[in-house]
Amino acid sequence: MKVHILDDWFDTLKTLPCFAKLDGHEVTVWTDHVEEVGQLAPRLKDADAVVLFRERTAVTRELLEQLPNLKLISQRGVFPHVDVQACTDNNVLLCSKLPKGGAANYAASELTWGLILAAMRQIPQQMQSLKAGEWQMGVGKSLRGRTLGLYGYGRIGQAVADVGKAFGMKVQWWGSDEGRARAKAAGEVVPESREAFFASSDVVSLHLRLVPETRGIITSSDFKAMRSDAVLVNTSRAGLIESGALLNALNANEIEMAAVDVFDTEPLTDASDELLSHPRLIGTPHIGFVTQDEFNKQFGDAFDQINAFATSEPINMINPEVWKQ
Q: Catalytic annotation on 182?
């Protein structure tokens, strides 16, 4: 099969053990990012299968209608960036393995802690001061005894909580009615109100999927409820926060620091962007899942789906009606 892989920006996948699963296929790897359908469709016109790199490229009806040779889209995880109905209408099978059971994305939880530590101990600023020959530049904060507020009672949040407890932090939760109920049933601390959750947390870390119901779920009112010396951490999705609310909170000194791995526009390459360049923002370029280990696991699954399709035994079908036809 002619297999095209999109958005492998650092040409990493060829270096992973899982890439050998594509032996026998004609593979093209694209290492830049193209959004315009007028540019993307000609690239993929001969593709039998496309492998998506997480949510970096949207698969729209307009694109699919210009790819008559396409038979399969293979990826891993949720797929809000894929028009599933358009896939079905154009006889394109979507295969995506969804994590089940207790498997958390530990790479994302590890980066969350990197950002928390960076913000609380002023690590980027202290490094910059040291390299400038100025030695120390301020005084950070200890974690032990402080309160970690986790919004979203899922696998990643629970992995973050385990580390917080190991640091001696008090851990508390907020989220949906169902999520709060599960947290309470597990013996976890859930404040009496949303306002109390934000007001009593030294660090608030977001661990939610971005779906229509969660878009903009963190509002200006939530920031106003937070302590002025608190930190907001987001390694999930920028769209969870009401548009402009984080920047406004920083400018109004409603929170002390933000540490984020996700932005409204990605890739964000404008160094003058008002949020990115804010002196009290620590940012990383959406690397929560970007480790060799995580890539090998995720793309191993995506490549298994390619091979299963090639042998007429497709797996992890999202729109199986296409295969039945």
A: no
